[in-house]
Amino acid sequence: MSERSADPGALQADARAGGTGALPLGTPRPWSPPAAALHVPRTEMLRYLGHTGQKIEDGLAARIDAAAADAERVSAPRGVRAAFAVDATGADAAGNPCIRLTGTTVELTGRDIYRHLKDAEAAVVLAVTLGMESERRLRLLGTLQPLDAALFDAACSALVEEAAEALDRAAKQEAARCGLTGNWRFSCGYGDLPLEAQGSLLDALDARRALGITLTPSNLMIPAKSVTAVFGLFRADALGNAPVPAADAVRSCRGCARADGCAFRARGTRCYR
Amino acid sequence: MFKPRTLDALRIADDDLRAVLEGRRRLLFDGGMGTMLQAAGLAAGARPELITLSDPEAITRIHAAYVEAGAEVITTNTFGANRLKLGDAATVDEVFTAAVAAARAAGARYVAGDIGPTGALMRPLGTLSFDEAYELFAEEARAAARAGADLIIIETMTDLAEIRAAVIAAQESCDLPIFATMTFEPDGRTFLGTSPEIAARTLEALGVEALGINCSLGPAQIRPFAERMLAVTDVPVIVQANAGLPRSEEGRTVYDIAPEAYAEAVSGMLADGVAIVGGCCGTTPDYIRLLARAMEARGRALEPRRCPRPFVAASAQQAAVLDGRSIAVVGERINPTGKKRLQQALREGDLAHVIGLGIQQQEQGADILDVNVGLPGIDERTTMLRVVEELQASTVLPLQIDSSDAEAVEAAARRYAGIPIINSVNGTQESMDAVLPIAARYGCDIVALTLDEHGIPETAEERVAIAERIVRAAAGYGIGPHRILVDCLVMTASTNQRQALGILRAVSACRERLGVHCALGVSNISFGLPARGLLNATFLAAALGAGLDAPIINPASERIMDVVRSFRVLNAEDEGSAAFIDRYAGAPDPYTATGAHVAGAPAEGARQTDAERGTIEHLILTGRKGDMPAATRAALEQLEPMEVISRHFIPALDEAGELFDAGKLFLPQLMAAAEAARAGFDVIRERMPASAEARGRGICLATVKGDIHDIGKNIVRMLLENYGFTVHDLGRDVAPEAVLAAVREHGVQLVGLSALMTTTVPAMAETIELLHREAPSVRVIVGGAVLTPDYARQIGADFYAKDAAAAARICQEELGE
To answer: What is the pTM of this model?
Structure first.
């Protein structure tokens, strides 16, 4: 653990690592993308639709374009993020080691998230949403136009991932100024991290109030085009070893409970980018 | 017996509070509680309400600091104290009892029982029903009243449906004054799209004692929104702003608006006419102390306000306002009278068709949708509730609930998120006794028909007399004339020619003498005559000139909408004629141009040649639905309808399925093929007697309980319909019992279930188990991203479908000829 300053509410820059800023802990901070900066990444959208290079007729191509434009028009991407100190010393109700985030009620259970965060100095929790209009539009199309609904759904999935990626990037840049490096962002439902953690992650960010995200009794978010995620922040050790093991720097199918029989893998692709 | 809600029916703590409720006195609330607790170390996400039980003194200390700062009202620490959020941690009663006691112990002059959102989103976008939300809120309101609160404050609401449920529950569970506030984003809307005006008007219509805005924004940002509320409601307006945005400083969360700046901005709102102020997130006793000073400087006394009273019908997102200078088109097409397709859809519970009519009318320019689902033998209450709920998910237009079944009307009016119109009441005592209490209770507008025990009178004067009687009776229920649309009832010109002008005179007289607005079902005028559209348009123009402002018409008629759009130039509603110019500049005049009408369909000829280039199979495989009707008509000249299906459509669909399996087509292409085939089927259906359509090949589809992902299920539905199956789509988040009930009702032998989440597969297993036990002959197909053949076997499914094409194949094998 590197030195903490007099301010217990922030991670200070590590001068040796060339950092300069301080990373505040605890307080959720709102985020919105720079005006019109987010676009539906077309290749991602097509990947969600199962496209593996088939020639697309002009008519369908135009509808794909229209769905992407529609998604951009009705969406109001917004997010919130906060960093918390990581406590990996506790155990869950079953006696297994778990991750707690200091100053919140978040308890993340399962081996995968434990491995992901146990050595982290802090963890960043983030939430983004496209807003309720996207949900309403999805419902409208779903009733009447299944094809347009599927296209719009894929466009929104790609767009909300793009938003999560943008917020992820902003948070990591900020962390980098303190000499901290992040690993990939982990979400509820990945590996053995249960969906039940969703509510406490939203509450840690006050995201129900700040973003209007709600949970169903089965812990699904509405608007459905919302993402919560958490990643760890790491510091290079005194020997100058890389702060994040290469294997953890990016996401992989390794350890995914659904790797067998995965439709994406069957098509030679994957469900994340 | 209905009693209108008046202050005399309420338990009001003292005369000062009564003066506040009458709009004659200002009132000061306390500030934030959650932020005070978090500053004291409460973990984010922990239930603050439970601290009142574990450490009541700590809560009382915070309350006492606000009392000392000058707050007259102390808000109980019960924001999330509903059964859903408390779970097993404590009972609602325990928390409210302790919370009111803690507030009293602090020396509070008035104690406000605080009720926040349930945390779950209500239907139709969410899963919580009105009745479930109502129960949660009623329990809180009862607990607050029993514990001795002086008033109820319902706050931080973003969903108009939810705040209505909370207000109605509180009104029916206690006799305390009710304050209700919503929270708005910087764009001036709540997360669910409600504006300050619609919030204020809907809450006033329900009869709350104070209404307003809290949370989300700082006072300077809220001020214009509060002004917009002040402009439309006489009810005292309350504002509780945040101290701006939080940021971290020295390890503490601080807010970026200092007490002085905050108080100054609030002071401006007091000058605007806001009667009740306090603080929300980030405010502390320091803020409230300055607000107390600002209020003293201004004095407590207040002049009650009087706003103009237009007619307003509203959904949660959009209002139709009639202020004497505007007209609103009421779309009449959701009415099964004489419409076979709609009758069938309503009987089979095929909501997609009904909702489609709503969406079309919205696109065609309707401002209000009339909703009539009355059919002999139908459960009108249930059907009305389903249709009204689904229309609220898919359209933004205010609804006009059209039924003579008072039970159906009340059920829909009670649950409607907004201000609905009830169609209709008439001059008979029986009708007025049944309908007016419902309109009064839920703040609805009404359509008043000028008929009574003696039928429809012949003269204008007699019609006006009946209208006057209804207006008088409505006033007795607190319903002003501005909330009434008098329908003077159009008679057919072919049989009652001399009445036509009389009706127009009656419209003028009602508008001028009674202060009401007027509706009219215009198209009745032309029954039995040729060129009905022409006569309708002429009569509509005349009626608009006579003062009709809510014509009930078919917005699909371009001719009728031409009249509406041109009249909006004449009544100066279309400012600078901008909309008119935009639409008609450069458009051909139908009487001079040789081509088609302005917005008519493109000529058939151009398409024919294109269609001839491709065979039906080719069109289906390349998803060209636009060319399919022509190609199908051409094929029907050579072949019988069933032959077109079996020789062309089915082989093409089968081939599309095979290409999809082989990875030669991807999902949208498979769906485009299904769409194209569908366009062909629609042509064939027109040519086939209804009795010839396949019967008995029914299947129920549902996304299982707890799951809300229905894209996959909808794709399966689309494919199955093309193969001629009768699909009973039960929707998403469907309980096992509901699937069983549908299986029994429709007598189907095959059920398709989808689940997208690992966590909802147990619900799928439960559904299969119930079906196999209670309906052993029924077989179940399952599908969804998390399932595998093994997994499907484990949970007892009869078939596993890896995708929509596979599902269609299984159904054909199981149910095919």
So the answer is: 0.90
